[in-house]
Amino acid sequence: MYEKMNSREESYAKTFALFLNAILIVDLVRMLIRNMTIVNMTQYGIYIGCAIYIYWQIAFNDRFKIDKSLFGLICSTVFIAFISYAICPEVKQAYSYYISFFLTRIIPALYFTIYIDKKKLVLSFEYLKKYRLLWLLYAIVGMLWIPLHTNSGNQYSMTYGYNLLIPACFVFYCFIKHGEIKWLFYGTVFLLGMLLRGSRASVLCLFVFTILAYVMIHKESINMGKLTRIIILLIVGIIVLMNFKNIVSLLSNTFPSSRTLALLASNINFDSGRSSIQSLYWKSINSHPFRFNGIFSDRIYYSNLTRRVYNMTNYPHNFIVELFYQWGIPLGIIIFILIDVGIIKSICYSNRIDNVELICFVLILFVSGFLKLFFSSSYLVSVEFYLLVGTIICICQKKADL
Questions:
Q1: Quick one: what percent of the chain has pLDDT higher than 70?
Q2: SS3 state at 150
Q3: What is the rounded distance in angstroms from the CA atom of residue 177 to the CA atom of residue 263?
């Protein structure tokens, strides 16, 4: 029985590590092969394979005795989708994709995190370490591929930057924990790729993670020497912020093809013109603050208003704006507060029980599944967001084996 349990934990860890790297692997295949048939086969193969593993576990190992929270979330999502369709039938344009996303990504993401425990998390981290060379290959290929296949004015990829976020956070965590130079090397390469060819928000998310992870992991052993280093880092950070534009302008002149550096040099508010898009949503929100428009209704609204062809990427690029437009301000505030409280509780709990792996995991999901949503992506189609929700549920249930 013990060997069987070990086997289940190992298969869980392998599949979970693959699931976390799926987007990166697919993007790497796209860069190297550039054959969309193979790219799609790779994408569907990974996600459907992971989904089959999950449903197999539910059917044959759990005997359909799934967690009540997971069952409740599934039913709630289906109910909300029906209500949204009844209010705005045009959202059916999004449902063909969303149904597939729901079955192959949302449910697996929730299952992996709701059913996680300390052994599974530690083992998953060990398997994630085995992906470091693949991450390195992706970082290097991206830095070389992107300028060759984009126009001279936009030599960047937001997908590339965000795909490197979790690997970068993970390797910096390994460096903070173990102090081995190899992890610093990986982290430096990933950071360089994010800075030169990725997005500014991904760099900010990495910075927030690194600071929080260092302070939380070393909280018990921080002596005067470490405290001095923290103070020095803060002082250096303040100096950098005071001279941020000058520093970035210098780097921008050194690397003129970097879109991230160019935007940082001219615009440090992380706007990229999205405030004009968000203002369209705010007009509607202010006119009807209590209206529930339904999920994906923001895409329909933007397409109709601008008379553009419907596109899944026509969303506000801001978590609060998206919540308020879809749910109305009252419900949006409640959902936002619940998520905030869950995040704070999860961070405090992981810090209190002194589980460094859990601290790292929660912080990674905090920056990639929550903080990122204020700059780009949509919570409806963000795998990291659902991983964060599942982790919050798991921690709030106060599992003794975490």
A1: 82
A2: coil
A3: 34
**First-to-last CA distance in the chain?**
21
**DSSP per residue over 170-212, as a string?**
HHHHHHHHH--HHHHHHHHHHHHHHHHHS-HHHHHHHHHHHHH
Q: List CB contacts of 90: < 8 A, sequence separation 6 or more.
A: 300, 310
- pLDDT, tens only, 19-59: 999 999 999 999 999 889 999 999 999 999 999 999 999 98
Q: Does the pLDDT at position 325 exceed 60?
A: yes
pLDDT of residue 400: 52
Structural tokens at position 228 = 């001095």
**What pLDDT is stored for residue 133 in this prediction?**
97
- Taking CB atoms within 8 Å and a gap of at least 24, the contacts of 230-235 are none
Backbone angles phi, psi at 66, to 5 degrees: -85, 160
pTM of the model: 0.87
3-state helix, strand, coil in the chain (%, to 5): 80, 0, 20
Tell me how far CA of residue 147 lies from CA of 23, 141, 170, 235, 257, in angstroms. Answer: 21, 11, 26, 35, 8
CA 48 to chain centre: 20
Token pair for 361: 């995991």
* Per-residue pLDDT, 277: 80
Give the position of tokens 């550096």.
Answer: 261
Q: What is the rounded average pLDDT for all residues in the chain?
A: 85
| CB-CB contact of 260 with 200 (8 Å) | yes
Could you tell me if 375 and 199 are in contact, meaning their C-beta atoms sit under 8 angstroms apart? yes
The answer to whether the CB of 394 falls within 8 A of the CB of 378 is: no
Percent of the chain with pLDDT over 90: 54
Q: Kindly give, in sequence order, each residue whose CB lies less than 8 Å from that of residue 249, ignoring residues fewer than 6 positions away.
A: 265
Which of 236, 239, 266, 232 is CA-nearest to residue 251? 266
Where residue 353 falls among pLDDT bands split at 50, 70, 90? confident
Instruction: Provide DSSP, 28-68.
Output: HHHHHH--HHHHHHHHHHHHHHHHHHHHHIIIIISTT---H
DSSP state of 309: P
Per-residue pLDDT, 1: 37
Res 269 pLDDT > 70: no
| Contacts with 17 (C-beta within 8 Å, 6 or more apart), sequence order | 124, 127, 128, 130, 131
